[in-house]
Amino acid sequence: MTTPTEQLPPLALITGASSGIGEELAKQFAENGFDLIIAAEDGRIDTVAEELRSTGARVSAIQVDLRRPEEVERLHAVIDGQDRALDAAALNAGVGRGGAFSDIPIEDEFEVIDLNVRSTVHLAKLLIDDMLVENHGRLLFTSSIASTMPGTYQAVYNASKSFVQSFAEALQEELKDEPITVTSLMPGPTETNFFHRAEMDNTPVGTSKKDDPAQVARQGFKALMSGKDKLVAGSLKTKLTGAANSVLPDKAKAKAHRMMAEPQE
Questions:
Q1: 256 φ/ψ angles, rounded to the nearest 5 degrees
Q2: Which residue of 69, 98, 143, 264 has the fewest C-beta atoms within 10 A of its own C-beta?
Q3: Within a domain: residue 154?
Q4: Each residue of 148-170: pLDDT tens digit?
Q5: Which H or E run includes 45?
Q6: What are phi and psi of 184, to 5 degrees?
Q7: Which domain holds residue 92?
Q8: What total number of domains does the chain contain?
Q9: How many CB atoms lie within 10 A of CB 236?
């Protein structure tokens, strides 16, 4: 425990922090004076924690499978057990699955829903309740530019991100009179392990040049700290795509998505 005169740094939670955008978000928080709780389903989270401690941050690493409700509760218990309240959280954990909906096992689609939707709602419920008690907090949801277009050959993933986007924007309105900010981060295709895990190596988007996750994280952290509602993050190309998606009809966007995500022989 700390003494009354000891001032602790702010504390942040980052999920999906073992690689990609989540790892880069964790670096942003650490480099900007936060202590961290980082979570992911794989053992690499411990390696990331060691690297982050070199910044001087105190880092707790939790290996947890957020697809399971009891694991969400276990992560929350770890947060509750800290010596201070949480100041910020980046709900970044997510997974995709590419291919024709008729070809994908339903268990794979349920995994996308359980992680991207169910666990996000569950953890957000717990954290917002805590933040209302503490009378402060910042929440960052990793949505996606995919939330703005029908996901031909990624049907459930894009739908899950549309849910996250709508959910974040609803919470912004509900919490507008509270000292809690909600920010939606909307990256485009980013150079992470996402497309390989989603079995999309044989698609145009899987083989294309993608955005730098460090750039996406820097932009996302800045948006969170400034209280911005949402941000299409990444390269100029991604930002132009985001602008185009705001005016194009859904059928045109569905066709464009097919050109990116349809598996190639």
A1: -65, -40
A2: 264
A3: yes
A4: 999 999 999 999 999 999 999 99
A5: helix 44-53
A6: -105, 120
A7: 11-261
A8: 1
A9: 7
